Amino acid sequence: MAKAAVINDLSGFGRCSLGVAIPILSVCGIQSCAVPTAVLTNQTGFPDYSCIDLTEYLDNYIKMWNLCQANFDGIYSGYIAHPKQADFIGSFIDNFKKKDTLVLVDPVMGDNGEIYKGYSDIMCDKMRSLTMKADVITPNLTELCLLSGGSYSDICSLSSEKKKDEIKKLAQKLTDRKNGLTVIVTGIDDGNSICNMAFTKNSEYAAVSERLGKSFSGTGDIFASVTFSMLLGGKDLETAINTAAEFIERSIKDTLALDPDPDHNYGVEFEKNLGFLIDKNRTKI
Ligand code: PXL
User: Fold this and answer.
1) Which CATH number does the domain housing residue 258 bear?
2) Which of 69, 89, 168, 97 shows the shortest CA–CA distance to 131?
């Protein structure tokens, strides 16, 4: 069974971070070894939340896991609660990445053109460096701009085709910076649809789904978790992003079926769709 270290926070409400990563990896047949960066009552989009930052505790994971000679087929990181956590994740990767270890860094920093509460410029700089240690990164458009120096508002004002051209140029800046890097730009608003675009040095794929209301908490984390699991299970990049996009579309439809005007902070009804991922992992292609 494949085994992955998953470095992310645990938020009680919000259906994000470890709260979605662990069940998704599990149904895809991957053992997830959790490294919680912080424990929150609610994700930070809620008007009120409380957070315990676990930065001081994190080095124990490298120490203890070296003692038990841990090894991982994959390493997947997301939200950080302190700039030092990006340094920790870098050290964790240096320590545990072997030739065939798949490293996915989800550069969680912001959404809709805004940086998340609690994220500083230093954290964004550190996240930029961390992405250079990854094989795959999954920024949304806001995060792509933060990583590559693009202007979110300028890009959003472009027509669909020009917007995609610009996104491709920015993604290429990143694939030029690191050999072998795959950049997957998630949740691009494209009129009536949502587009996810994957770029490697020599190839590109798009996974398109129906646009259903405004953005929900945790969908970026779900996208990264499904994509990571599929790639680790040996699926190709195109299949991985199509599966992630379809899983999210189904989960949003279920959310809106229960309540047409839901509080987006609570995330999406992904639980009842986990069986879809089990089926996808049974098929050979
Ligand atoms: O879904 C990204 C995310 C993860 N973890 C926490 C967050 C957010 C987004 O707001 O607040 C704690």
Assistant:
1) 3.40.1190.20
2) 89
Kindly give the distance from the C-alpha atom of residue 78 to the centroid of ligand 1, in angstroms, as a whole number. Answer: 9
The domain containing residue 265 runs over which residues?
2-282
How many CA atoms within 13 Å lie on the side-chain side of 244?
Answer: 36
Rounded to the nearest angstrom, the distance between the alpha carbon of 86 and the centre of ligand 1 is: 15
Q: How far is the CA of 221 from the centre of ligand 1 (A)?
A: 8
Q: What is the pLDDT of residues 174-200, one digit of tens each?
A: 999 999 999 999 999 999 999 999 999
The β-bridge partners of 190 are 193
User: Using a 6 Å cutoff on CB, does residue 220 contact ligand 1?
Assistant: yes
Q: Which two tokens stand for residue 193?
A: 């649809």
Q: Which is it for the CA torsion 43, 223, 20, 8, positive or negative? A: negative
- In contact, 111 and 152? CB cutoff 8 Å: no
- For the Cβ of 108 lying below 6 angstroms from any atom of ligand 1, the answer is yes
45 in ligand 1 pocket by Cβ < 6 Å? yes
| pTM strictly above 0.90 | yes
pLDDT band at 285 (very low <50, low <70, confident <90, very high): low
